[in-house]
Amino acid sequence: MDLHPRYLFRVPVEAQCISPDVFAGKNLDEIAKLPLWEGNKQRSLGELFEIEGEPSDKPESLSIHVHGEVQRVTRIGSGMSAGEVIVSRDVGVHLGEEMKGGKITAGGNADSWLGAMMKGGTIEVKGNAGDYVGAAYRGSVKGMRGGAIVIHGNAGNELGCFMRKGLIKVYGSTAQFAGVHMKDGAILVMGDSDGRAGAEMTGGKIVIKGRMCEVLPTFTIDGVKAKVKVNGDEVTGPFYLFVGDMAESGEGKLYLAQSANPHLKFYEQFL
After folding, report:
1. Residue 252: inside a domain, yes or no?
2. 210 near 189, Cβ under 8 Å?
3. pTM of this prediction?
4. Which of 39, 145, 154, 211 meets the CB 3.0–4.6 Å disulfide criterion with 11?
5. What is the CA radius of gyration of the chain?
6. d(CA 169, CA 164)
7. Per-residue model confidence as pLDDT tens digits over 152-204
């Protein structure tokens, strides 16, 4: 099914109704009447989008393609369990929050809280992502609990905050506090980190192929590894392996590429 915005949105549009689970079993008229919010005004989906295509009784048979400028449209794919959502360009906050299954693809950039507290499925972002990718919402200690998030650009602060399971892969670089409060799962960053990766982590694995200026003092070096497995795939090194966060009696593993971090060579004297 195809959705085309009727005009350029000036205020946020909360559109958790754009989901295969919600569309399934409804005809076009019923889909057009689905409620959403544009700013502080309740609208129907048909008022804001032109809707085309063939409905389906099963969410796994539905593919929803959102076209046009929708960077102010939020909560697309919220809680979805099956099917596919494709966003052509940039998209707003909370994309795929609490997602359970299926696949979401964003052709541009995704704003903050991408895949927050997701439990399963796959999210792929062709551009950059904002802060709190796969994170727990404030007041919760249950971040990402399954599935995979792949970001082809850069990601912001607190990537994988309170992460418990799953995979986050960033082809670009990340801002600060990647894997903060991490419990389990894996984070792979192909670029650089702005620092403080793994702060207060107690488990899980963070692999950074690029440079990080310094390691938190609450991590201890545990060795140099030629390679590391991430989600079953081997990532070649060599890597410095640090364990922590000792401030939390943590047993998380932080891998930093040896070639990109020559300033960490002094740690070798402690091996």
Report:
1. yes
2. yes
3. 0.97
4. 39
5. 20
6. 15
7. 999 999 999 999 999 999 999 999 999 999 999 999 999 999 999 999 999 99
Nearest by Cα to 87 from 23, 5, 31: 5
Structural domain includes residue 220: yes
Range of the structural domain that residue 166 is part of: 157-271
* Bridge partners of residue 235, in order along the sequence: 228
Nearest to 179 by CA among 101, 226, 170, 171: 170
| Strand bridging mode 2-5 / 63-66 | parallel
Whole-number Å distance between alpha carbons of 152 and 51:
29
Identity at 215, one-letter amino acid code:
V
Count: domains in the chain = 1
CB 256 within 8 A of CB 214: no
Residue 4 lies in a domain: no
Distance CA 34, CA 44 (A): 5
Residue 29 lies in a domain: no
Reported as half-sphere exposure (CB side, CA atoms, 13 A), residue 69 has a value of 7
DSSP bridge partners of 38: 13, 41
Alpha helices, DSSP H, located in the chain: 20-23, 28-32, 45-48
Residues 6+ apart with CB under 8 A from 10: 72
Return the SS3 of 193: strand
203 CB burial (10 A radius; 0-12, 13-18, 19+)? middle
Measured CA to CA in angstroms, residue 141 lies from 45, 150, 167, 183 at distances of: 33, 22, 18, 10
Beta carbons within 8 Å of 94's beta carbon, 6+ residues apart: 74, 75, 78, 113, 114, 116
Q: For 184-193, what is each residue's pLDDT tens digit? A: 999 999 999 9
Residue with tokens 């799953």: 166
Query: Strand, helix or coil at 149?
Result: strand
